[in-house]
Amino acid sequence: MRVFFEGSAYSVGEGESVLETLIRGGANVTFSCRKGTCQSCMLETVRGEPGEGAAKGLRSALVDAGMFLPCCAHPTRDLEVRRPDPAKLFTRLQLAEKEWLSPSVCRLSFEPETNLDWKAGQFVNLRRSDGVVRSYSIASIPEEDYFLTVHVKRIEGGVMSTWLCDELEVGDAIDAQGPIGSCYYDPADSAKNLLLLCTGSGLSPLYGIVRDALRQGHTGEIHLFHASKTADGLYLRDELRALAREHAQLRYTASLTQQADLPEGVVEGRVVARAFERGPDLAGWMVYLCGIPEMVYEGRHQAVLAGAARADIRADPFEYAHPYQPDDSRKLAQIAPDPELWEALERGPGLMRILTSFYDAAFVDPRLAPFFHRVTKQRAIEQQYAFLADLFSGRRAYFGLRPFNAHHWMIISDELFDYREAAMEAVLRAYGLSEPLIRRWAAVHELFRREIVKSSARGMIIAGVEQAMAPPERVVVELPCVCDGCEAEMNVGETARYHAHGGQLFCEACAGVPSRSRPPPSISP
Ligand SMILES: Cc1cc2nc3c(=O)[nH]c(=O)nc-3n(C[C@H](O)[C@H](O)[C@H](O)COP(=O)(O)OP(=O)(O)OC[C@H]3O[C@@H](n4cnc5c(N)ncnc54)[C@H](O)[C@@H]3O)c2cc1C
Ligand code: HEM
Ligand code: HEM
Ligand code: FES
């Protein structure tokens, strides 16, 4: 059985998804979660059927247009696919109302031209006619508000936000993709306590989520913290205070970080510092984090330290268009030694036993093992031991790569990161570490989520400069040799691909994705 894509045919291996087949074959596809959540891998069927479950979670209009998610597709017959026609991914939204909520935040309410099912807190990708696309989170509840509403913070010099705030007029229409994302209220959580942290227009999704929870009869406590640098970034204060008066379970705290004279009812301080100042125990809580990425990742770290389960954290960092510059040196320098944890690990032997069981499991885990196909288990254990022993004991003898560079080429989703951490925690519990020590260990890993999670490969960063990804070079074999992927012999005069950064030479069949554990893929152009 084969998948045809952009002029090539790819044989589908036993148990493989269409996405795995295409990646293994070196096709230029986009993807992130590999699990049917992010929708970034979406393709369109030209001929054949992608199989059951391949369109799970897609809007019905997209399913009708032939879209499917290759990461969830296991076809039973030949399938021809193509990149989706962008026109089919977007719906039109007409601007119905526009109102400034503060000097820097504008509320835009849209009427969708086709039926759109959203949940407050999800986001849409808005696209201007020249192709500029940016994400905006939804503040409104379809059942109550009718319009799809977003709060846009006007950023001086920002391409999209200034255009939306200053130029888009009532009656104008704009293309939108979505709704996307899992940052929303689930009525199954109605008895849990909610902690919601946001900065600036990060209030947009959380305003929707808080109102949605109240509307659906939430019985747990709800703690909403909103911070801004200056007073003009705080908005909807009267509405939120009124809501808190009406609902005893809702607490609302507004804080400012860079303003000396505080308006009445507003406190001083960063949102994370305010929310965690009383050292809450968050076991069993739901945590929502939206707004500037620094706050979102710091909030995640604190929430894990306070005992929140990773699966109960919903976060949308408002990432900007430019790539993240890792900050792992500073983070590593700030981690204080943990003598109690180090003692519980018998000053080393316990850590070694934990890592041995963890990597024994990771090396046969279907989702983790593929990352390790060119690393020995011994090396993985030793490097990880040296890294963690340094942090916990306070000695400084680790000279391996820092987290960003160690994982520079790995595409690791938030969900996969959580999966790895859950596996790690299971090993720590089996070892008998106490819950507070497990939380502290997990919080150290959590600090590096932003260095490790990404949806496409990055170059290593050396002396602050990201090394450009040189595409594999086609070369002619000059001496008989063996392919670094499948170990097949290569003869003089054959063409091969040379990966300069790793110094590896691959035969044409390996298409640049080396694997010692699998037979070479068969590709016929
Ligand atoms: C999932 C998601 C949801 C989002 N939801 C919202 C939302 O509900 N409301 C909202 O207003 N925005 C939201 N954003 C951010 C939004 O998508 C844009 O990044 C933002 O509006 C800036 O776009 P721009 O074209 O105006 O700026 P650009 O032209 O892309 O950037 C111009 C300059 O401004 C800087 N910059 C960008 N963003 C910020 C910022 N927030 N603070 C300070 N400097 C900045 C950039 O580094 C750059 O130098 C969200 C982002 C994501 C990823
Ligand atoms: C899903 C999550 C993760 C995956 C799939 C993953 C995978 C890997 C792999 C394959 C390597 C070997 C790289 C090589 O030697 O070439 C590695 C190394 C390493 N990882 Fe991870 N990792 C994950 C999460 C983490 C986390 C959370 C931490 C801790 C913060 C971490 C710390 C390290 C360190 C310190 C190394 C050694 C770097 C070196 O080789 O010098 N990893 N990881
Ligand atoms: C000076 C910069 C770089 C160094 C020192 C470096 C080093 C390495 C090392 C040691 C490995 C592991 C290979 C193995 O285990 O045999 C690796 C793997 C990889 N690197 Fe880099 N790298 C660099 C730049 C890049 C860049 C810029 C990219 C592209 C974004 C890249 C993409 C990859 C990929 C895709 C892999 C996995 C391939 C495989 O499994 O062998 N590298 N790199
Ligand atoms: S939905 Fe397929 S990669 Fe995320």
Short overview:
With 525 residues, the protein is α+β, with helices and mostly antiparallel strands.
Instruction: Write down the oligomeric state.
Output: single chain
The structural class is: alpha+beta
CATH homologous superfamily of the largest domain?
Answer: Nucleotide-binding domain of ferredoxin-NADP reductase (FNR) module
Largest sheet: 6 strands, mixed
The CATH class of the largest domain is identified as: Alpha Beta
Shape: globular
Q: What are the segments in which pLDDT stays under 50 over at least 5 consecutive residues?
A: 511-525
Distance between the termini: 15 Å
Strand line-up in the sheet with most strands: 4-3-5-1-2-25
Tell me the helix content: 25-40%
How many separate structural domains?
5
Count of helix runs: 17
Q: What small molecules accompany the polymer chains?
A: flavin-adenine dinucleotide, protoporphyrin IX containing FE, FE2/S2 (inorganic) cluster
> Strand-residue fraction?
15-25%
Q: State mean pLDDT (0 to 100 scale).
A: 88
By CATH, the topology of the largest domain is: Rossmann fold
* Counted beta strands: 25
The gyration radius over C-alpha positions equals 25 Å
CATH architecture descriptor name of the largest domain: 3-Layer(aba) Sandwich
